[in-house]
Amino acid sequence: xxxxxxxxxxxxxxxxxxxxxxxxxxxxxxxxxRHTFPYEIVRQMGKxxxxxxxxxxxxxxxxxxxxxxxxxxEELARVDSSVAITLEAAVSLGAMPIHRFGTDEQRAxxxxxxxxxxxxxxxxxxxxxxxxxxxxxxxxxxxDGDEWVINGSKAFITNSGTDITALxxxxxxxxxxxxxxxELSTIIVPSGTPGFTVAPGYSKVGWNASDTHELxxxxxxxxxxxxxxxxxxxxxxxxxxxxxxxxxxxxxxxxLAQGCVDESLKYAKERQAFGRPIGNYQAIxxxxxxxxxxxxxxxxxxxxxxxxxxAGEPFKRQAAIAKLHASTVAVDNAREATQIHGGYGFMxxxxxxxxxxxxxxxxxxxGTSEVQRMIIARDLGL
Length: 382
Ligand SMILES: Cc1cc2nc3c(=O)[nH]c(=O)nc-3n(C[C@H](O)[C@H](O)[C@H](O)COP(=O)(O)OP(=O)(O)OC[C@H]3O[C@@H](n4cnc5c(N)ncnc54)[C@H](O)[C@@H]3O)c2cc1C
What we know:
This protein is α+β, with helices and mostly antiparallel strands.
């Protein structure tokens, strides 16, 4: 058992850490305040190869592994979660389904630009009427000659409406299974396809520099060849994508939790109350010690899930545990970091205010905490 990082992983972590501090930290608060998408940061992340991290070199990737992506996400989220979720969704939800389930032609067409960060892709599973219960999917796709005709809508889709969004992969009901359940498939819809409308961005509580939209499909026609993977395998495909994605979200949550420790430590040494730095008071020391404890244990949980996944072992339960624990810890640490900052913690100019606003979604997105508990209980045989 060895939790030390390899030289390659350590070098990657350090370079992303430097990038987050030097290139993201100085500009992200303004994007957040104005709700603007950080194109320049995305361009730089593309140049660093971050969008291609876990993909083979023959498709334009960096030849790294999924754990490398997690390390990058942790370091980015330590400074800002909007940037981190943009990368997470682009890789894990956008490019990965095409890499895993696409035909040679689909990979050749889309992966080079997605892995270089020149273009982004979204993954549309959630609908206005259903999220946790994918069986409630209402969006339909009907074959008409050599085209799929898609009707329906998707809610809260990340990276779906930027200037560089190339496509969205959507889940749709394409028929009925022999047992009477819905046959679900995934279909690639390129941006700009007639009948595909992207609504204006949501007004969100957090992740304000990330891109999220509702999408509608109104007799939207795409070629039959845009089916991603086998017809009727949509359910199995997105379960696999979400299992992996949970490890990535856990890493992102650990980054936020660690960022709260960083900011609190700094502030506790500077801020004076009753004639001493507040970090001299045991009440504050214990808060920070508990925050470090939580970030550390959540990190071990995602390292464990990632190690199992990379070893080809079952990792569903461990991914759910990592996501559940890390998101809880992120919310806890954001609350305590804000408390340590007193009134300044409620001011948007302080990073901890952003961390607080960004933490809650981690208990909701890519499977709510209740869904994680359902997965763990089911895996235990209940
Ligand atoms: C900013 C943002 C970005 C997102 N990005 C994407 C994206 O890129 N692609 C995408 O497809 N989706 C995306 N989502 C959607 C997200 O994954 C869903 O919001 C989430 O899965 C929950 O679904 P829901 O909102 O429909 O809640 P519901 O499923 O309606 O759940 C409501 C509540 O009921 C609970 N609940 C539901 N079923 C049960 C049960 N059986 N037992 C106990 N409790 C239960 C839930 O845990 C939750 O607390 C995003 C959401 C946000 C806010």
